[in-house]
Amino acid sequence: MDAETAVKHAPFVDLGRTALAQNWSCVKIGNIPYNVTSEELLDFLGRNSNIVPEAAGSIGIHVIMDRSTGKTMDAYVEFMNARDAWKCVSRRRSRVLGNRHLSLDVVDPSELMKDIFPRAKGIVWDGVIPNPALNKPEYVSKTEIISREELVLIVNHARTPHRSPFSRKCLQRPFQSLMSIVSKFPWFAVNLYTIQQRDYIYQALYSAIDILKRQIKRGRTMPNLDIELLKALLRVGIRCAGFTDAQKHELVKIAEFGAEGIRVDADIGILSGFEALGKAIGAERKVLEVFSLVYNPL
């Protein structure tokens, strides 16, 4: 077998390239209560509204949080098609939730991406697709979709919510913010982010899972911080097209009881050291072992 044939039939996939750019139809909901939950929004919209399910690669409902203050901003809901999005807006005659009069508008998916990644540098959003900006300001030296500093701010809100009056009133928001980031990050745009930037996102999610798990284990009574949120965080990480199999294995380990029922690939140990490659569907263990020995000789 020559080198070209060997590469063609290698038992790996290029992480990120298997992800799809999915431009779901979006509805923006403004003036939402600061402590609104995803469940309350789902009840408000109707559970038969054809919202994008987790299995399709998104969490469906995104509640935006200001990274600096922890304040709840607007919400976005992704629908399977434009017809369902417009139907949802038109039939919501009563737009009151709690004590707030909501605004509902069908918007381009780029609006959602701008709010999830508000400090992105050097790119222009075309729906969910990031394109390099043609005329970048001189102070923008590199393309960056999300910075390490933003991720640190979010994790800090999760770790010490009492430091912000907004975080105290809505404890689940930092965790939901990370779920939106991981699920909507354009992993398919492999030329616009580095492995290091990928790892910053992974580490933020890892820390959030650990923080939430410890809070649950302490047995504290905290509204909306429960095992269901822990499982949702883990599912987002497991489905992420940009994380390696080894990283997903570490998420399962740190989640402990939150990972009940989730199976770990038996070949995970063989894949250590592969930073941008994952196991191809149907790859045989003995073939993986050969490639692993070549890459990581004894």
Automatic annotation (TrEMBL):
Domain of life: Eukaryota
Matching Pfam families: RRM_1
SUPFAM superfamilies for the chain: RNA-binding domain, RBD
Stretches assigned to the RRM domain: 25-109
Keyword Flavoprotein set for record: no
Matches recorded under PROSITE patterns: RRM
One function term, GO molecular function aspect: RNA binding
Keywords attached to this entry: RNA-binding
Protein name: RRM domain-containing protein
